[in-house]
Sequence to fold (111 residues):
Amino acid sequence: MGELLTELVLRSAELIPPGEVASYGDLAGIVGTGPRQVGAVMARDGSSVCWWRVTNASGELPAHLVDEAREHWQREGITGKANGRGCRITAHRTDLLALTDAWREATANLR
Fold:
C-alpha cells in the first residue's frame, strides 16, 4: 500500500468529529479505494488517529480493540451495542457529505 493512500485514509479518519463514527466502507467511498484497504491502513497506521471512530459496517472492531475503544466511545457519548462488540453506528454515523467536503479540502495539496 502506498504512502499516498495511507495519508488519504488517515486524513479522512482524523476529520470524523468526536461522538461520531464511520465505517471502513464509508471512508473507502470517500478516498476511492476498498474497505479492506482502509482496514489495512487503520490496522497498520491507525494508532496515530482516532481509530475508534472507524468501524466495520456493523459498528464493530477487532476483538482486541473493543475494550479500549469502549472507553473512548463512553467519553464521546457513542453508545455501545447490546452484544458488547461494538457501537451503534447507525445512531452515530457522521455526516458523510460534510466529511467528504472536509476531506477534499484537507487533501487538496496531495492530489
Summary: The two ends are 16 Å apart (CA to CA). The chain has a mean pLDDT of 96. The first helix runs from residue 3 to 14.
